[in-house]
Amino acid sequence: MKNILITNVLFNKQRKDILIEGNLISKVEPAGTIPAEGYDKVIDGSSKAIIPGFVNSHAHSAMTLFRGVGEDVPLDQWLKERIWPYEAKLDEEMVYWGAKLACIEMIKTGTTTFNDMYWHIKGTLRAAEEMGMRSVQSYCWMDSMDESLFEENKARLQKAHRMSLDWSPLTTFAISPHAIYTVTGKAFRYINSYARDNDLIVHTHLAETRSEMDQSERDYGMSPTEYLNKLGLLGPNLVAAHSLWLSSDDIALLGANGVNTVHNPNSNLKLASGYKFKYNELRDAGANICLGTDGCASSNNLDMIDSMKTAALLQKVWRNDPGAIPLKELMDVASYNGARALRINAGRIEPGYLADVALIDMNRPSFVPGHYFLANLVYAANGECIDTVICNGKILMENKYIPGEDLIYKKVQEVADQVVDYKKKKKA
Ligand SMILES: [Zn+2]
Fold this sequence. Notes:
The chain is an alpha/beta fold. 40% of the residues lie in helices and 22% in strands. It has helices at residues 75-87, 92-108, 121-131, 150-164, 185-198, 210-220, 224-230, 248-256, 265-270, 279-285, 296-299, 304-319, 327-334, 336-341, 373-380, 405-419, 422-427; strands spanning 3-11, 14-21, 24-30, 41-44, 48-52, 54-59, 111-116, 134-141, 171-177, 201-206, 238-242, 260-263, 288-291, 357-361, 386-391, 394-397.
């Protein structure tokens, strides 16, 4: 069994020795009390701090290939004229390379787990496992409201689920009906019963835009949240990305059913989808609030520290309350709450939790002076402060270096050039 000792590292305002045995944190003791001998690896933590690895609870990782295309257009146009035509060209190998880049970016910014929604999951799965990341990979169901595609989707979902039984413990299988405007009610009902029978997570987009809300009122005579409730989807196995356009009745429904909501502030701002995420109301109603980046085509990066900062600043300004989202809660939103949603025993640095952690390099201006570590982390630093990342007890990055990263950048550029041709890129 591999073990790693991290000595004299800053944790919760104190210096600690932290022992990792196998894939678990086994000891968190005062600094200097665990003798630094007899371990496979000893990391000197004296210029470092430790945090739980972030859980990016809503991502489309291979969309790194579209970083910087389709800028400055609204969501509908962005999807129909830019993203969907490019996505039609993707194959499993391209998705693999896009996801490899995403994994590098996530590891470099302290994320150890991501909840993905995309096609060609075998490509993303291979990338995540090679890079050593924990992830949830889901069968993405999108039928453009065409009921004739039901049987085909159903067979594909069942096949993907069977295939997932051979996956390593790092990866969990889930089902992703894309959204209420791209998936039929019949499909949602089926997905719900299949997920409940097989104890699976369901990951969807919910109430992202004003136009989705208007369309739902027009087509179903109710809000998107009420519609999902009518179809039986609301429950603790539902991960609802965005959950932005909500009435007080919607919030009560999400809370009472223990739904996991994922705030993606950078994506919402960039696509002008909205900004009044009802953090306090959802929390007080009983929803589990998580944080995500969304795909790189809309948020441009996968940096959870950047997302934390935007989330906090947004709450403060629209509520006119500088106390909104206290830093300690924000840390849970970015790690522990996501782990809960994805049924992973991570997000805390305590004995018995999974060894999914990030070490921060404090030898940089943003951490001096060290009056308040979390404030420095969220408001002064960004993802580049991450020095070392451990996931499932294995070191994925040390001293900011991930083996093989230069080759991956080169290959991803080649693949991206095949998907987005230069003339169209110029127009974009
Ligand atoms: Zn999304």
